[in-house]
Amino acid sequence: MPDPFHYYRRSLRLRKHHYARGGVYFVTLCARERECLFGEITGVEMRLSDCGKIIRDEWLHTETTRPNVLLDAYVIMPNHIHGVIILTSGIAAEKRRPTWFNADLERARAAVPDSVAAVLTQFKSITTQRIRALTEARTQTLWQDQHTEQRIWSEQILERIREYIASNPTLWDQDENNPTVNLPN
Q1: According to DSSP H, which parts of the chain are helical?
Q2: CATH dotted code for 23-167
Q3: Alpha carbons 150 and 115: distance in angstroms, whole number
Q4: Where are the chain's structural domains?
Q5: For 9-63, what is each residue's pLDDT tens digit?
């Protein structure tokens, strides 16, 4: 008998937290199957591939295309990106929401406009299109379906995350996302 929870993924989202309102978030996006497409670590320095340069350019462009987004520390690794996203306001999302909006029904269909998920969905979509055009790989999925996001509640936590992001390339040989590392189960 098949396991009904085989495809169930536990949500890391906070219940009753409105992710389109202002806040500071630590996010991680991973390449499909953790494939190292974005570059390589040489010594302790990340050297971006052409795909990695597209990731960097679009990450920085996110702040330009979305007026409610500010970017803080980030690092692009061979197969993932860590970054801090600051949402400055949720007013635009509230204004665009139709009056008939049913939160329970719509939550399953699409990301709330101006939310962390909407920002990352757009980022993933654009980078996938640009990298497909570069590599002529029309069917390849670039990103894993899900990402991680963590609300940052204090300046002390933000500083620790900034330090983690800055030191990430130096820890690549111990990183769980590094496909050449055999970590104990």
Answers
A1: 50-65, 91-96, 103-107, 116-135, 155-167
A2: 3.30.70.1290
A3: 13
A4: 23-167
A5: 444 444 544 545 679 999 999 999 999 999 999 988 999 999 999 999 999 999 9
